[in-house]
Amino acid sequence: MRFRNFAIAPAILVVLTIASAPPTVATQPVARPKTVTVARPQIAPPVGGVYLQAKSGIGSQSLSITGNPAGCYVQVDDPHIATSIPNAVKVNARIQCAYAVTTLSLDVTLWKTGFIFDYLQGEYNNSKAGSAYLSNQGAFVRCANSTQSSFYGEAYATALIGGTLYSATVNSLHSPTIACGT
Q1: End-to-end CA distance of the chain
Q2: Per-domain residue ranges for the chain?
Q3: Could you give the CA distance from residue 145 to residue 154 in angstroms, rounded to a whole number?
């Protein structure tokens, strides 16, 4: 069935056509597409920063990856000679959110690159409730000699926001060679 409606305005003729098709009935169930939802965080992470995300699903086939509503991100600095600890190399990391969340947790490790394997040199874990910021400056190793060695940092962060756990892992952008043998 077709309807045609003519509307006449001064010197303009507008034709509106409305078509009606017979209804269709699906005989097979319609599959719902899998969706990925990413919320818009309120703050932008600096270079090298990574947003914390919640993952839901079974095993490696995650059905949904959701950005966190507080815009929390984790960042780890490059390893450096410590100014606060004599004769040591350390790495710093932080979690920053747009507002205070239930709990923040930050695990930071300092690694020395090896010929075949990398070697754990130091690690430090801390957590804080009801905060928008958490820093970790406790991962370090004392130098045994001045042999040139390459180091990198790794941070694993979690934030509990509204009963949902968000997490991310990030490595330092560079692996500097430092005169610090361990």
Answers
A1: 85
A2: 50-181
A3: 24
Residue 167, pLDDT > 70, answer: yes
**97-119 average pLDDT score:** 95
Contact between 67 and 40 under an 8 Å Cβ cutoff? The reply is yes
pLDDT on residue 135: 96
Read off the pLDDT band of 64 (50, 70, 90): low
Q: List C-alpha distances in Å: 46 to 29, 89, 103, 108, 173.
A: 46, 23, 22, 18, 12
Instruction: Give yes or no for a contact between 116 and 59, defined as CB atoms under 8 angstroms apart.
Output: no
Q: 3-state DSSP call for residue 87?
A: coil
Using CA atoms, how far apart are residues 178 and 164, in angstroms rounded to an integer?
40
Question: What pTM was computed for the model?
Answer: 0.71
Which positions ≥6 away from 53 have C-beta within 8 Å?
A: 65, 66, 67, 68, 166, 167, 168
Which residue in the block uniquely carries the two structure tokens 């600890």? 85
Q: Which amino acid is at 56?
A: S
Task: Give the CATH number of domain 50-181.
Answer: 2.60.40.10
Tokens standing for residue 23: 């209804």
Parallel, antiparallel or unpaired: strands 119-142 and 88-112: antiparallel
